[in-house]
Amino acid sequence: MPVTRDIAATYRRPRQTLRALLLRGVSEPRALACLMGACAVMFVAQWPRLAREAHLQGTDLEPALGGALLATLIFLPLVFYVVAGLSQLVSTAVMRPIGGYDTRFALFWALLAASPLALLYGLVGGFIGAGGALTLVGAAWLGVLLWFWTTGLREARKLSEPDGKEGAA
Questions:
Q1: SS3 of 2, please?
Q2: Spatial distance between the Cα atoms of 41 and 51, rounded to a whole number of angstroms
Q3: 152, 114 in Cβ contact below 8 A?
Q4: Among candidate residues 32, 44, 59, 60, the one with its CA nearest the CA of residue 121
Q5: Digit-coded pLDDT (tens) for 87-102
Q6: Distance between CA atoms of residues 1 and 18, nearest Å
Q7: Contact predicate 48/123, CB 8 Å
Q8: How far apart are CA 70 and CA 73, in angstroms?
C-alpha cells in the first residue's frame, strides 16, 4: 500500500493501521525512511514562514533555508532517535517493555502521519503569521502527533505480549 494511503488510513483507523504496519516486520530502512520523510516534509513546511520573514526583514532567504535544512534533516533525526530511546526506557519502567524497533517506528510513523498538519502549519505561518490561527493549527498538529504516537505505542505493547504476538519481531 502506498504511504499516502497508509497516512490517510491512520487518520481514519489509527489502531488498525499501526498494527498492520508493525506486523510487516522489523525493517530499519523503512523506519528510517519514515523519519527522513517526516523531516523532509517539516523542512518544506518551513519555506512559507521563512520566505515571509525574509521578505518582512529585507534579508536573503537562502541562509535561512540552509539553516532550516541543517536543523531538520541532520539534527532533528538524531533528536527523534534520542526521544524514541527515552520513550523505550520509560515504557520499560512504567509498563510492559516494548521492543526498540517498535518504539522507534511508532514515533517515526506518528511524525510522518502528522506531516500534512505540519504543512498546514507552515502555510498558516507563511500567509497569516503569528496569532490565534497559527496557535490553533500548531495545537492540532501536536495533538494528532501525540494521538498517533501513543496509539502506536499501545499497539506495539499489545503485539509484544506473549499471546498478542502475530509475527512482529
A1: coil
A2: 16
A3: no
A4: 44
A5: 888 888 887 778 888 8
A6: 13
A7: yes
A8: 6
**Joined grid coordinates for residue 107:** 514515533
Q: Which residue is listed with cell 505493547?
A: 157
Tell me how far apart the alpha carbons of residues 101 and 88 are, in angstroms, rounded to a whole number. Answer: 9
Q: Which of 110, 134, 115 is nearest to 124 (CA)?
A: 134
The 10 Å Cβ neighbour count of residue 118 is 23
pLDDT in tens, 51-60: 988 998 888 9
C-alpha to C-alpha distance for 30 and 43, rounded to whole angstroms: 20
Q: 165: helix, coil or strand?
A: coil
Q: Cell triple for residue 45?
A: 513546511
Q: Rounded to two decimals, what is the model's pTM?
A: 0.85
CA 117 → CA 93, 110, 158, distances in Å?
32, 12, 28
How far, CA to CA in Å, does 97 sit from each of 88, 136, 165?
Answer: 7, 34, 14
CA-based end-to-end distance of the chain: 21
